[in-house]
Amino acid sequence: MAEVFFYHLTGSTLGQTLSQLLERTLQNNWRVLVRTGDENQLARLDAQLWGGNSPQFLPHGISGGAHDADQPVLLTSASDNTNGAKALMLVHGAKTTADEVAQFERVSLVFNGNEEQAVKAARADWKTLTDAGVAAKYWSQASGRWEMKAEKNG
Fold first, then answer.
1. Which CATH superfamily is domain 3-152 in?
2. Under 8 Å CB-to-CB from 53, ≥6 apart: which residues?
């Protein structure tokens, strides 16, 4: 079963962090499914990835197109793994289950640490997933760089 990495954003934007995580994940030759909990954010995520928070081109598409299965990075609000992704990234309050986590090599839950509701939701997700036996790591950038602050083995 994959482990879930929780990324508590305080010093960088979602676009910056997502670009970094996607670059690293694509270097592993893994396809990625980026799921948003807010369908209205799909166009914004698309623009951020095209816009260049990264010096490297990040090939991607929004779900619902004719070539979804071919996309290295597929942006979606649905739970279907249309592109056969090995990595799942959850943003804007998107949820997962322990059963779904088991289908991936890596799951990342990225949340805004400056929004109280997002922090509460991430804490609840941590508890739900780790209580179900999912291994998890909590990463924070409160010190200015990413540091692992907590770890729980499934």
1. DNA polymerase III subunit chi (3.40.50.10110)
2. 13, 15, 16, 18, 19
